[in-house]
């Protein structure tokens, strides 16, 4: 089976709805929060050349798009998804790597960042040279954070004034001297524990509010 990963064009508009549906169903299956996308938004990214799609014999296999913030100072990769029929083939890593290299050429001076709750994405990011950072090192553009409104964890983000959530922030700065292998090796056990600690802290606060309200 031959899978090609290419920069999107208008001919790929027909896959927009399927991409949105796959992203949403995948998030529901994992039980994680998600910022929902619309087919129109995906098509806009496609027509601007700010997205890459994986195709297997003409069928949708995977996707990821690029967003730029603060006049190109920051770049984020969003909507990384692999169709269920093509998982366990290492395709997510291949798409992410392609988008990463494409971003470095398209936005050479931008810092590349992302926020995620997925350990698989964290591992891929780490292998590319990203490092975990506090949200204060990410973009301050309100448009980026407003994109989290449809996520189930948005109230947590708001309560922390966009400084903390269940997601982990990760950043790649092209101005930093990179090493091979990356200077920030992925430690799944540590990041998994960090995620659990965050969840426990937020849960305790919610329970405290409920208890006070009942009193």
Automatic annotation (TrEMBL):
Indicate the segments forming the N-acetyltransferase domain, all copies: 11-151
Q: Which Pfam families match?
A: Acetyltransf_1
What is the top-level taxon of the source organism? Answer: Bacteria
Instruction: Kindly give the SUPFAM superfamilies that the UniProt entry links to this protein.
Output: Acyl-CoA N-acyltransferases (Nat)
**Alphabetized InterPro entries for the sequence:** Acyl_CoA_acyltransferase (IPR016181), GNAT_dom (IPR000182)
- Gene3D superfamilies in the record, alphabetically? 3.40.630.30
GO molecular function annotations of the record:
acyltransferase activity, transferring groups other than amino-acyl groups
Which PROSITE patterns does this UniProt record tie to the protein? GNAT
Name used for this protein in its record: GNAT family N-acetyltransferase
The scientific name of the source species is Flavobacterium panici
């Amino acid at each position: 089976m031959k899978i090609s990963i290419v920069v999107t064009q208008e001919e790929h508009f027909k896959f927009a709805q399927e991409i949105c549906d796959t992203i949403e169903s995948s998030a529901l299956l994992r039980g994680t929060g998600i910022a929902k996308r619309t087919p129109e938004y995906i098509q806009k990214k496609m027509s601007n050349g700010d997205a890459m799609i994986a195709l297997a014999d003409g069928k949708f296999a995977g996707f990821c798009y690029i967003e730029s913030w603060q006049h190109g100072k920051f770049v984020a990769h969003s909507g990384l998804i692999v169709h269920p029929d093509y998982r366990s083939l290492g395709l997510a890593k291949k798409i992410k790597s392609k988008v990463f290299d494409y971003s470095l050429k398209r936005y050479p001076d931008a810092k590349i960042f992302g926020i995620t709750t997925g350990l698989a994405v964290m591992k891929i990011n780490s292998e590319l040279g990203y490092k975990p950072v506090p949200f204060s090192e990410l973009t301050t553009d309100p448009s980026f954070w407003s994109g989290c409104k449809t996520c189930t964890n948005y109230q947590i983000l708001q309560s922390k004034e966009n400084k903390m959530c269940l997601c982990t922030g990760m950043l790649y700065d092209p101005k930093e001297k990179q090493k091979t292998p990356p200077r920030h090796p992925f430690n799944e056990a540590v990041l998994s524990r960090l995620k659990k600690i965050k969840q426990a802290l937020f849960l305790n606060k919610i329970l405290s509010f409920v208890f006070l309200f009942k009193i």
